[in-house]
Known about the structure:
The protein has 488 residues and is mainly alpha-helical. The chain has 19 helices and two strands. It has a two-stranded antiparallel ribbon with strand order 1-2.
Amino acid sequence: MIHKPHVDWFALSPTLALLAAAGVLLLMAVLVPRPWRKASSALVCGAGFAAAFVFAVLLADKSPHGHAIVADAMFRDRWAAVASLIVAGCGIVAVLVSYGERWRELHVGEYYALLASAGAGMAFFVSASNLMTLFLGLEWFSISLYILCAIDYDLVGSLEAGLKYLVVGAVGSATLLFGSALVYGGTGQLDFDKIAAAGHTHDPLLVVGLAMVIAGLAFKSSAAPFHMWTPDAYQGAPTPVTAFMSSATKVAALVVTYRVLATAFPHEARLWTWAVAGIAIASIAIGNVAALTQRNVKRMLAYSSVSHAGFMLIPIAAANALGARALVYYLIPYCALSLGAFAIVAARERELGAPVTLDNLAGFAWERPFYGAAMATFMFGFLGFPLTGGFVGKFYAFAAAYRHGWWWLIVVGVAGTIVSAAYYLGVVRAMYMRDRMELQLAPAGGSPPRDLMLGAGVALCVAVSVGSFFAVQPLIDVAHAAAKSLPL
């Protein structure tokens, strides 16, 4: 008789909702007539992400005390539930931004199926409690994203972006897998808590494995010096895919990084805190300096994403309860800022039929006042100005570093913020302060049609970006409840 472990289906509900949506979408790609396929596919994919969002909220409410499920392969706790909630929210906005994209409708059903599948993989990934499910979740959402990057083969650079992401992502996955094998070889355990209980401190095999696990996860969070795929993949991929990757992938990678390090390697904290701090410094420095020279807006935002990975690694390096709360809070406005910025880039691309640069962004705010004001809000939020959640997020991250006693990490963060002002404010200047020589005649045919779905996505991002500044306490309470799940 085969022994089957008890399965907590409710704990798996966010993943199952998105997996069901992906399955239905694959059937629709074959069975639904082409004229109806785009609208119905977007509706089903959006419903899948909305259902996952609701299930994640219920799961967070019903899981005050975290515990392992499914033969200790996964965690049911608020840390995973809140991460799934943020990923589902990113997916909803990504569906809104994707709807008006001008691409061949031959594979539109498959596109939404892959988007839902990537979300399901991320929800599974953030719940992992051992190295095996960690790797399975990583490959699940990574393979979906590889295909999404290359799905629009009419777009110049899309196939190249998918190939580069595939090759470098495979190296990152292999690094993580080899590191996991070394950790297993050193401890004889796969479960995070059992790795910590094994007590094999100062074991060279374990230390090398830990270093490779950190490197593998840093590839996925696009942290320097493991960021080499990010600019090309972000620039070449369809902009809605870039928006989803820049937000949801970071949520999954950073949340899992904190859990793995805090749960499986508490005895090696003196090593990994310094390693993560070094990666944070490299990300802030390389991301901000490289972004200064960019004229392509998507490429500039890609390097901005690298620098923000560094800012979000600061609370992980702090390795305290305040750092866990800071990371969860920071991810909420960051995802809204990143999704919103790429959504507006998508809107400008659809108007011009060309890549968006600082030159052809000139005067955009006067032509599209709502989008211009929203883009300025996102740039100020990235910079960390008050009245946006980016200000509180950076302050919270710096507070975690200060509590750990690493004031020098705060100095690096502040210096990076000052440098970033040059390119963030450069976008605002390009939109509002064009020269007379840059004025051109309006294109024949009048204004392009309104994209109500994209506008709704941008409005939602603005609401979260600004609302996270005024609704600080409720979000901190959510972050505090999630952080209790980690052994800090």
